[in-house]
Amino acid sequence: MKFTETSIKDVLVIEPTVFEDQRGFFMEAYHFQRYAEAGISTVFVQDNQSLSIKGTLRGLHYQVAHVQGKLVRAVRGSIFDVAVDLRRSSPSFGKWVGVELSAENKNQLWVPPCFAHGFYVLSDQAEVLYKTSDYYDPQAERCIMWNDPDIGIEWPIDPQAPLLLSSKDQAGVNFKQAEVFE
User: Active-site residue among 30, 31, 61, 117?
Assistant: First the structure.
């Protein structure tokens, strides 16, 4: 496995070693010891899976209690996956990083605790799997507007596909009003 730092400290892109032949492929999707050696010694407690159609944008989500780190990958289709630093004491506070995750590239994104997370579906459909470091708590869930100008995420929105947002995501708060971490 190859662990690559992004422009934000602690956010990593993980590229698995893939063994392919005429039958298909094999890869380790997760190996605790290798991840721990790269600085991700998190114990994951929950796996989540979603299926979304082209134009769907989910996020920017995070929890203020039961704070979750997320290990994200696309097992079908492709997404533009985003992490936003919500650590006030961090030099990258309010900054974002985005990468394409796809069934084809098989890469993963490590979104540490105290980050908001979201993704936009690039393909006709995308199936996303992610591990979390704490359990989902609907009372602690928060949402920042996906298009907040203070964050300035450069989403690769397809003008030919309708933008699909949940009511929760449409009601997200501006970054300046968001609860953040010290």
Answer: 61
d(CA 99, CA 101): 6
Residue 182 lies in a domain: no
CA angle 69, 156, 171 (to 5 degrees): 60
Give the mean pLDDT of the chain. 97
Classify burial at 127, counting beta carbons within 10 Å of its beta carbon; exposed 0-12, middle 13-18, buried 19 or more: middle
- Tell me, yes or no, if 130 is annotated catalytic: yes
In a domain, residue 96? The reply is: yes
Identity at 151, one-letter amino acid code: I
Number of domains making up the chain: 1
* Rg (alpha carbons) of the chain, rounded to whole number: 16
Query: Is 0.90 surpassed by the pTM of this model?
Result: yes
Asked whether 103 and 32 are in contact (CB, 8 A), the reply is: no
- Determine the pLDDT at residue 65: 97
61 in catalytic set? yes
Confidence at 101, pLDDT banded by 50, 70, 90: very high
Burial 75-86 (b: 16+ CB within 10 A, else e): eebbbbbbbbbb
Measured distance CA(167)–CA(39) in Å, rounded? 36
Select which of 35, 62, 120, 130 is catalytic.
130
pLDDT of residue 176: 97
Alpha helix stretches (DSSP H) within 3-155 = 32-37
